[in-house]
Here is the input.
Amino acid sequence: MHPTITAFESSPDRGRGQARDMRVRWALEEVGQPYNVRLVSFKAMKEPAHIVLHPFGQIPTYEDGTLTLFESGAIVLHIAERHAGLLPDDANARSRAIAWMFAALSTLEPPVVELGMAMLFERDRSWYAERLPMLQDRVRVRLGELSRRLGAADWLDGAFSAGDLMMVTVLRRLHTSGLLDEYPDIAAYVARGEARPAFRRAFDAQLAVFTAASRS
Amino acid sequence: MHPTITAFESSPDRGRGQARDMRVRWALEEVGQPYNVRLVSFKAMKEPAHIVLHPFGQIPTYEDGTLTLFESGAIVLHIAERHAGLLPDDANARSRAIAWMFAALSTLEPPVVELGMAMLFERDRSWYAERLPMLQDRVRVRLGELSRRLGAADWLDGAFSAGDLMMVTVLRRLHTSGLLDEYPDIAAYVARGEARPAFRRAFDAQLAVFTAASRS
Here is the structure.
């Protein structure tokens, strides 16, 4: 039996792979673990059958035998702990890779999502023109710090890890903001992640859901 | 040799224990691990000697022998993995407790911090009156979902875990917002966390830093 994850039945980003199932798909592809996908509608996500799997009514979830998990970070960490390929063997390096997972979710993602949400939902508000530069600057601060740490390296700390996987998926949300153009080394880092065969397979799988839905 | 953590030399919340070193202190107290604290000024946090420990120039950091870590979530998880008392023995329950750590940081903390930042820094902006209810409602949605899952239980999933520790520290940031009053079961959950002897010891230790600084 393969694990089953959930994903949006109807892709909000039209298959650009920015929903959080992408992280889990990518992790499963990196470690070579086949998986099943159950698509969930926005309506069904808020119904009891899904809430029992995910208390906040979101995707992705992960079911494997008697285990049910939610939160993409927790699912990716669970996969990384049980398969080779996403965490270093050395104990210190392993802890540091996990620290980058948390940094992606706690330090980078909040200002990146806040900017993205404002660009989507506050464009017609009176305060948009004044708030936008403030939100962009918050993201720029983090990108500058990340760039300084990355330096000339390919990945954040040694070999590619679950920390890079999470970080790249967070940074990809900036594609429409134009901010990555200001940090060519960060843009190149994201491109390295996107060029990995496992990323491509995961991306194509989530795109196929959108393509099939838009044909039907 | 005990591990060394960093904390603010000058408490921005005047010793209310909302800085992120509080999570690490609490975790160390729960598992009975003594620790050293190195206080860092806002200026020193942005200087090379600290940036090498924390790429984003923040606190807390964690140093233990040859290991240096940043991100409070990663540090708490590292402590929980190496000491009994913060994660269940059962593998599935352990993964679920870690999922609650990620939920605290990824799903609860962003809207909670966004509300807190707006209340601190946007009070005099033209948009404050219009945005505040929107930010409050985003937090209410999560508190309602959390309350539904908690039900009549003391903790989120079985015994107290690192997941509860992280969640309580995030929810404590709502004390000044008044929103916890609308969810008595969540307020009681936070109070249960704050009543734990390990929490009290951690709280008193960070308060002592502020008290000493304000006397000098």
Remarks:
- The first strand of chain B starts at residue 4 and ends at 8.
